[in-house]
C-alpha cells in the first residue's frame, strides 16, 4: 500500500509519482504562478520523482530527480506537489540503485 504526501514532507531516498500539482485554489495569484512554474519545470502529474539531497539548514532546499532531470526547490515550493510514495526497495536492490545514482 502506498502513501500520498506533500513533496515537502519527503525524506532523502523517497521515490514516487506526482498525483497532483498545486492546490487548485484559483483565488490566490501567488499559488497560480507557482503552479505554472512547477508545470514548466516538468512537475506534471505522472512524473516520477526521487528526493536526492536535503540542505544542511532546516533540510532546505531539496534536490530531486524528476524523470531524467535534476531540480532544486525550496520546501515551501515543494508543498504544492502531492506525491504517491512508493514502498522502499528491498535491501539488495536499494544498494545496487544507490551505487548507480550519484548523491
From TrEMBL:
Keyword set, alphabetical order: Iron
One of the record's GO molecular function terms: transition metal ion binding
N-terminal signal peptide: none
Top-rank taxon: Bacteria
Short name of any one Pfam family annotated for the protein: FeoA
Keyword Chaperone (UniProt): no
Gene3D superfamilies reported in the protein's UniProt record: 2.30.30.90
Residue span, Ferrous iron transporter FeoA-like domain: 5-85
Descriptive protein name: Ferrous iron transport protein A
Species, as recorded: Brevundimonas alba
